[in-house]
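Reviewer 2 asked us to include a model.

Predict the structure of this chain.
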Amino acid sequence: MKNIYFTVTNSLEHDQRMHRICGSLSQAGYEVFLVGTKPKNKVPLKNRGFGQIRLNNWFSKGKLFYIEYNIRLFFFLLFRKMDAVCAIDLDTILPCLMVSRIKKLPRVYDAHELFCEMKEVVTRPFIYKCWKWVEKYSVPKFTLGYTVNGIIAEEFKKMYGVEYGVIRNIPVLREIPVPTEGPKYILYQGAVNEGRSFETLIPAMKWVDIPLIICGDGNFMDKAKALVQQFGLEEKIIFKGMVAPAELRQITANASIGITLFENKGKNNYYSLANRFFDYMHAGVPQICVDYPAYAELNQLHPFALLIDDLSPEAIAAALNNLLDDDVLYESLKRNCMLARVVYNWQLEEPKLLSFYHQLF
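Predicted model (structure tokens):
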């Protein structure tokens, strides 16, 4: 039995993407281990049929966190028996590269995004320079890899000459939780990070009659809460923090509208393909989404999202109110969600993953 180690910088319990990947490989007969960080709240992990390991860290954010975690991860991997190692995004790539060289193992890069082009990186010259050095040094040495859409795969080919496959992060096709009776609300789920248009989404809620629920956490959380206070929207915008996957599916099923917005700052946002884009669709929930290439392409067959290219507060509010007021448009998008989820689901994406690792060994 071949064993594979996957490395991330999060604390594992909410990482649905890695739960899917590791679960599929485990069910296919691989021995799989997912390595991440141990949160201060020590939330216990559920048994998911594959190994889950959380490393202790003194630091929880910033440069010292990444330096410490990468050192700990290197020594952890160095003394583990493995047949392959996979770095999930750029922030764990160096330990995987060094260990794979020492042990002469196959190494894989799972690039969920253009890491150096995230707003929180590209707008900080020193941070950008550091991560860009890591990328230029490491990525060309990872000839085997995959990413979430063809546009990002093409960028890696242009920059580093690597031919990466495409394995999209799409939910498992399952029955939609039965919605419960309750008031309408708009939902944002995912990382509360820079570049997610909270600066315009939050003030837009002044002109929308139903509340916005935000499920997630991230580097923009304090600023987002400050904006809510600034605009006096404490009664209309609710922060739920990190929510367990099963509970989040129920919250999503009960939502009236989903939100998938990114500022057009940095290639990562413009070329993105967010998990929540598929999560809302699988729950049968129409959404407001940016009109960027990957979203526009997937929305063509069965239009299930209302795409917008103006991210001003006024335009966001107008789009939300349009969905709330136009029953014909809303029901059309809802019907198309049900058609699209049969076309875009993990059951159809999973064979690409299994084929990749079968060829690896």
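The mean pLDDT is 94. The first strand starts at residue 3 and ends at 7. We have added this to the supplementary material.
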